[in-house]
Amino acid sequence: MEKVGNHNSISRKLILSLALMLSISLTSFAQDAAPVADASTSAAPAAATGGDAAKGKELFNANCAACHKLDAKSTGPALRDVASRREVGWLYKWIHNSSDLIKSGDADAVKVFEENNKIPMTAFPQLSEGDIDNIIAYTSEPKAEAPAAVVGAAPVAGAEDQGTGISNNVILGALSLVMAILIVMLVLVNRVLRKVAAANGIEVASKEPSLPVWKAFVRNQFLVLVTAIFLLLSGAYFVYGFFMQVGVDQNYQPIQPIHYSHKIHAGDNEINCKYCHSAARVSKTAGIPSLNVCMNCHKSISEVAETTATPEYSKAFYDAQIQKLYKAVGWDATSQSYTGKTEPVKWVRIHNLPDFVYFNHSQHVTVAGIECQTCHGPVQEFEIMKQFSPLTMGWCIECHRKTDVKMEGNEYYTKIHAELSKKYGVDKLTAAQMGGLECGKCHY
Fold first, then answer.
1. pLDDT digits (tens, 9 = 90+) for 160-192
2. Which residue, among 166, 167, 58, 67, has the nearest Cα to 119 in the 3D structure?
3. Quick one: how far is CA 12 from the chain centroid?
4. Which residue in 399, 414, 411 sits closest to 364, CA to CA?
5. What backbone torsions phi and psi does residue 401 show, to the nearest 5 degrees?
6. Domains of the chain: which residue ranges?
7. Domain spanning 53-139 has what CATH number?
8. How far apart are CA 151 and CA 154, in angstroms?
9. 42-90, pLDDT tens digit by residue?
């Protein structure tokens, strides 16, 4: 009898494939997470003065941090290991009243005063010698070294997979292998069935040629007409949608030459929008803040706190942006003075209305009392600023239709509001009812 197929070879192939898939799965379970170094195991040595470094840190942040940093010069000199450079008794006198020490002719006091642009230090007579010892203990702590990155270590913060589950790549690989096995099995079964049919003299019926689909479609004139109408309407719809989006730059988010985080400034630090964009209260435009506004704060802030860093933006990245600001304004952080060498910053404009549209920020911000977030979105959450609203004509008209006119403390609208509210039979008028839909309001 003629053999119709080698079934043992098929079974052997299936067993080998399943064994391979099982070995891959077991390998994924055997992987162990790399040990993560615990930073808390290294403790700083005690300060030589016997003060409490923890209390000293609180006192330093409350009294000294505005003008001093531990490892970099600010308004005053860096204070790391200051006890090794000055006697403790001299530090007591200097901190309690530096002016008296300078007037006494003390050589060290005069030298420090002249090295720091003759900026007088604030006197702190309220600090006891014990408080100063605590501050010295804090400044005497060695600088913490950044932990070395462990190659191949999984991230700890916010990580969902702690090494105990199966990787998604392994699961997808196993599924792909199963699909490949099924395809191979179907091919082998097809071959076996053909051999069985040939061995038993069974003739496999061939498929009769059928009319191609496209020919059948062309012969049906009604179907062709309906399809043509559908394609024309669909094309007109998409063409209309395309042209309606011309000039609409919603979610436009360019990269600026100096990275500015609204999330840090307006969000974490709660800086009012109109502190930087002061022109929005009195002018047509909100204006681009000049760099001297930035330097009001950043003369004393040359680096960000460790807690400011995010997985996407490191502390080193933010510090580098502050250095770009210093370079643009010509600020020398070491000497705490301007060099006179400035560079222009080529900011990229984000919001840009057409030339035939008139919009006045002061009318909306000061008169109407509209919050900046109404049009610009939750800027306090934006790491990179973007155009939040579409700024289309329809969007503006819809706002005028639903926004009531602010009457509190606005006598300009009192008479016309009384007349129009009586005409429309309402207590509060919208901007549209006050003429906010007239063409000449925005186009003239």
1. 444 456 788 889 989 999 999 999 999 999 888
2. 67
3. 55
4. 399
5. -75, -30
6. 7-27+167-199, 53-139, 213-244, 262-393, 394-444
7. 1.10.760.10
8. 9
9. 334 434 557 888 888 888 888 888 888 888 888 888 898 888 888 888 8
